[in-house]
Amino acid sequence: MRFYIVDAFTDKAFGGNTAGVVLIENGESFPDEIFMQNLAAELRYSETAFITQNNESEFTTRYFTPEGEVDLCGHATISAFHVLEKENFIEKGKTYLNHTKAGNLKIILNESVFMQMAQVKDLGTLEEKAELADLYAIMGIDYKKKDFPFLPKIISTGLPDILLPLRGREELNLMKPDMNALSSLSGKMNVVGVHAFALDSSGKYSAFVRNFAPLYGINEEAATGTSNGALTYWLYCNGLISEETECLFLQGETMKRPSEIRTRLDIKENCCNIWVGGKCKILACGNLILD
User: What digits encode the pLDDT tens for the residues 38-96?
Assistant: First the structure.
């Protein structure tokens, strides 16, 4: 098996969000889960994707954090299909199918890799004053209802997250969550974590964002495909973008790993499709020595 270290959502080394990618060649089946979990923990990246080819146009991918398996990971998917293109398994200008535990999702390969997200699930709005005050306090923010015209929502495009609006970019950058309390809250609310954001009044970006998932061993992540897919839907629900809008999110600034995540919203016949994409840079590759 070949492994790769890939920086996703950037075209520069040491930027973006790093993923491990393990390429299982010749149509072989996945190794056992203990091995995949141990390797993900050894690599120590927020997610490692294990991918195998089913036929010329279909692949199956599984995703492991250092703590456990997850159904889907945006930046690891983008990384994996970038590797497949560089190794000549796939070609630009074509569409492929990625089988995941979150569903069978399309991949479009052009100058960037774009992946279809899982079907949007709106899991509710957080409205109770005490609940909101507790959530914002855990995130290190003083909550005053009159200062927040929008409410947090729990949305999934493959993984459920709390979408948390803030008052501005400075507040976002200075935020220091209580990771132990956030981990406990995430488990209680059955979410991966919190995706905090501040809208960009300049219009260059749709929003500045930070993502926290300590329940899965990820205190902060530099780029999060599923969460920004969910944020795209949050923006639509709140009337901030229209159908067929393209969004651009800036994440990872406070980690000194700036990432640009692009999303596309496509609503047709009451069906909402969200696509997430970006560029990648392969940093290293090698062979796994298992003897």
Answer: 999 999 898 999 999 999 999 999 999 888 899 888 899 999 999 999 999 999 989 99
CA distance 107 to 89: 14
Measured distance CA(184)–CA(172) in Å, rounded: 21
User: What are the distances in angstroms from CA 248 to CA 26, 196, 228, 251, 264?
Assistant: 37, 15, 9, 10, 9
> In CATH, which of 3.10.310.10, 3.40.640.10, 3.40.50.2300, 3.90.180.10 is domain 121-275?
3.10.310.10
CB atoms within 10 A of CB 85: 17
Expressed in angstroms, the distance from the first to the final Cα of the chain is 12
Burial class (CB in 10 A: 0-12, 13-18, 19+), 128: exposed
Q: Is 103 left (phi over 0), alpha (psi -120 to 50) or beta?
A: left
Rounded to whole angstroms, the Cα distance separating 4 from 187 reads 31
Topology of domain 2-116+279-287, per CATH? Diaminopimelate Epimerase; Chain A, domain 1 (3.10.310)
Whole-structure pTM value = 0.85
